[in-house]
Amino acid sequence: MTGVQEPGRLARLRGAARELAVPLREVAPAVDRDPSVLPELVRSGRLPWREFSGLPAAHHTAPIRVGDRSTAADSCVEQAVVWEEMARADAGVALGLPGPAMSGFMIAELADAEQRERYYGLLASDRPVWTFFGMTEPSHGSDPASMGTALRPDATGSLALTGTKRFIGNGARAEIGVVFARRAPGPLGLTAVLVDTARPGFDARPLDTVGLRGLELSELRIAELPVAEEDVLGRHLRASRRGMWAAVRTFNRFRPLVATLALGVAQAAHEYAEQTLRPTPRAFHRYAAHEFAGRLAGVRAMVAAAALAADHGAASGAAASAAKLHATRLAEELTQRAVAALGPGARFDHPLLDKWVRDARAFEFMEGTSNIQRLNLAQGYLQERDRRAVAA
Ligand SMILES: Cc1cc2nc3c(=O)[nH]c(=O)nc-3n(C[C@H](O)[C@H](O)[C@H](O)COP(=O)(O)OP(=O)(O)OC[C@H]3O[C@@H](n4cnc5c(N)ncnc54)[C@H](O)[C@@H]3O)c2cc1C
C-alpha cells in the first residue's frame, strides 16, 4: 500500500519494480557483511541490474515495461517510484548496482556528443560498468567552493588533475566517473572532468562504513592524472553554464531520488515492525503504527511533488530539499521507534532492523545534510518572496 491513490500507470510500475527488486533483499545480509561480494553477485546474473540501470532509452537493453511503454530514465516521477521499491528491498544493494546514477545527470547537463557516446557506449556494453560522482573532499563536503582538487597544466603544459575525494559511492569499483576540480579562482572556476579510472595517477580504496555498505564509499587519490580538453565537461558551453551551475541542477534532480530511497527504507522497516509487533499489543501501541503510516503517505506525496517539480525544470530545488529533509527524519525516527518498541536486544535479534537503522542514518549526509536542506529552503522562500514582490 502506498497510502495515496497513484495513477494507474505508476501503480503498475510500482508493482513491476517491487517484484523485480526481490533478489536485492535476498543478497542484502551478505553484501552488508562484505560489500566486496556485490560485483560478483551482479556478474553471476542473480541481480536485475540491467533493468534497474537507468540508462536512457537509446542505450537501454532491458527497461522495465508497463503495458507497451518502457520506463523513462529521464522521468524523475517514474524513477522515484522505481527507486523507492529498490530501497524497500535494500537501499545499499540498490545504490551499489552498476549504471550511471548521479554522474549520469552531469553527463545529461554538460556532455557534448562525443563525450555522451564515450560514456553511454561504455555503460551499454554487455558487462556491468560502475560509475562515480566525485565532489566531496576530506575537508570540504557541504562547502564545495573551497575545493582543493585542481586541474592545471603539468610541467609539459598538458592538463593534469590532482586531489583527494572522500565518501565517493562505488569509487573503487568504477571504470568511469565525474571529478570536480578547480581550474581558476572564483565561483566560475570550478569544472567537471570525465575520468577514466584506468589512467595513471588514479587510485581508489574502499572506506570502512556503517550504513549503506553496499554502496562501498571510497577515497579517491588522484595524482597528476593526465586530462585532455576532450575530457572537460561543458567545454562547448559558456562559463556560467559549466561547473557549479550544472552541479546544482544535478543536485536538484537527484535529491528527490535520495528522498525516495530514505522513504523506501522507512517503508521496509514499517512493514517489518508492524508484522513483528502485532502479536504483542502493548509493544505495537508503543510503536504508533498509525502515526507512521500517515507520515509515510505524507512524505511519499512530498517526494512525488519534488519529482514533478524536477521534471518541470524547477530552478530552486526547494521542494526536493523539503522532501529529503522529511524523508530522512522519518526514516531515522521510524527505525529507532521500532527498535525501542521491540525492547532490549532488538538490534541483535532483528539484524534487518539493525541494518535499516544504520542505513537511515547514512541518508542524513548523502546529497547534503539536513542543515544544508534548511538553508536551501530558506533561500527558496526568499527567492519566491522577491519574485512575488517584483511581480506585484
Ligand atoms: C551514503 C553517502 C553517500 C555519499 N556519496 C557521495 C558521492 O557519491 N559523491 C560525493 O562527492 N560525496 C558523497 N557523499 C558525501 C556527502 O555529500 C557529504 O558527506 C556531505 O556533503 C557532508 O559533507 P561532510 O561529510 O564533509 O560534512 P561537513 O560539511 O563537514 O558538515 C559537518 C556538519 O556541519 C554542518 N554544516 C556544514 N556547513 C553548514 C552550514 N553552512 N550551516 C549549518 N550547518 C552546516 C552539517 O550539517 C553537518 O552537520 C556521500 C555521503 C554518504 C554518507
TrEMBL record:
Keyword Flavoprotein applies: yes
UniProt domain Acyl-CoA oxidase/dehydrogenase middle: residue ranges: 133-222
Required co-factors: FAD
GO cellular component, one term: plasma membrane
Protein name: Acyl-CoA dehydrogenase
Residue stretches making up the Acyl-CoA dehydrogenase/oxidase N-terminal domain: 73-125
UniProt superkingdom: Bacteria
Chain ranges of the Acyl-CoA dehydrogenase/oxidase C-terminal domain: 242-381
GO function terms (MF aspect): acyl-CoA dehydrogenase activity; flavin adenine dinucleotide binding
Organism expressing this protein natively: Streptomyces lonarensis
Keyword entries, A-Z: FAD, Flavoprotein, Oxidoreductase
Family: Belongs to the acyl-CoA dehydrogenase family.
Coiled coil regions, renumbered to chain: none
Cell membrane as UniProt keyword: no
